[in-house]
Amino acid sequence: MSLGVASPASHGGDFFATTHYSDWVRGSLRAMASRPNAIALYDSTISEPSELLAGLVATSLVTRADDGGPRLSSRYVSVFANGNRFLVDALCARYGETPDRLQTTTGVTGGLQLILRALVKPGERVLVENPGFTLLSNLALEAGAVVDGLDRPAPDFSIDPAHLAARLTPDTRLVILTNPHNPTGVFLDHATLKAVAKAADAAGALVVVDEVYGDFARRPSAGMAAKLAPNIISLASLTKVFGLFALKCGWMVADPQVLARIRAGQTEGDAGVSKLTHAVAAHVMENADTFDRHWQAIMTATTPVLHRHASAMQAEGLIDGAVPAAGCLYFPRVIGVTDTRALARHLWNQVDLLVAPGEYFGLAGHVRVGYAGDADTLDRGLTRLHAGLRAWRAVQGR
C-alpha cells in the first residue's frame, strides 16, 4: 500500500473525503491558510521550542578557533559507522543504556523501516494494534508484509496477552505497539509489556514498541521497554516530547543480537541520517534538562484546561472517556455519534475548529485532541468544541 499524497482536486477540495490521515492533515493545513481564526486541536507534538533551539545552535554548535574564526563544534562528527558517538553517549546516559544496545536513526519511521526490511520477508505477517496510527501498518504493507489487527478495545484500550497470543501465527514476525498509545494516550505498565513479550516469544516473534511519547509517562531513568525482555525493540525520537521534529533524530534500543540482525539485513544502514542535525541533537541531549523544562511547563499549563473542559462536556453527556494520566493526546467517544468524519466537517464549517476524526485511527465515534500547544488557544478551541457538539446534537434532534 502506498502512502502517496492525494490530489486536493481528486476530492473536490474536500480534505475530509480522503482516506489517509496524512492527506487529511495536508489538506487541513492548506485550508487553514485561508482561515486566520481557525484553530487546530489535532496536533500531536509539543510546540517547537524554536528560541531554545536557536540559542543552542548559536552558543554550542558554532565555536571559535584560535584565530578567532568560526568552526563547528566537536559534536560535528561522522554518523556513518554507528551514529554520532556523542549523541549515543547522551542517550545512553538518559535511558540507562549501553552503546551496544542503541542505534540512532532518522526517526521512528526510519527505524521501523530498517526493522521491517531486515526482519520481515514479503508474505510474512505483522500484528499491529487497532485503533492505532495507520502509518505503522502502512509501512508494514509497503515492506510486503501481511498486516493482522490486534484489538485494543474501549474504554481502557489495554492489551489482553491471551488475545494477543491467539492472534499470532507461525508466520508472525513482529508485533508493533505504541506506548503511550496513539491515539488514546493509554500507557501500558511493565507487567503488561512483559506478558506481551512472553506471548510473542512463544511464537518466535519480536515486539516493536514505539515510545515516541514515552518520556511523558515515565522518568527516562526508568529505561525503555527494551530493558524488559530480549525480544522487545524500542523506538523513540526527539519529535513528540521535545517538539524537535525538524531534526529528524531518532533511535532504537534492543538486545545486541537483535541489533546485529537488523544491521546485517540492511547493510546500507539508515541513509537519511544527517551529520549536521545529529550534531545539533547531541547538543540537545547534553542539555536535555532545558528542553524537559520546556515541555513540562507547557503540559502543566494545558492539562488543567483540558480537564476542565472535558469534565464540563462529560457532565452534559456530550463525550465520555477519561483523560490519560500523562501525555498530550485525548481520544474521547462522542456520545451518540457514529460518523465522526461528518462531525469533524461540521465543526470545521460551523466553528472554525479542526479535530481528528477517529476513522483515521480505525475507530469511528471518537475524535483525537492534542493538547501540547498554547494554553489560551487550547481554551478557545475546547470552548468551540463544546459549542459545536451542542449545535450538532441540536441539528441531529437529540
TrEMBL record:
Q: Where is the Aminotransferase class I/classII large domain?
A: 86-385
Q: Which organism is it from?
A: Nitrospirillum iridis
Q: Which InterPro entries match?
A: Aminotransferase_I/II_large (IPR004839), PyrdxlP-dep_Trfase (IPR015424), PyrdxlP-dep_Trfase_major (IPR015421), PyrdxlP-dep_Trfase_small (IPR015422)
Any one GO MF term held by the record is:
pyridoxal phosphate binding
Tell me any Pfam family this protein matches: Aminotran_1_2
Q: What is this protein called?
A: Aminotransferase class I/classII large domain-containing protein
Q: Highest taxon of the source?
A: Bacteria
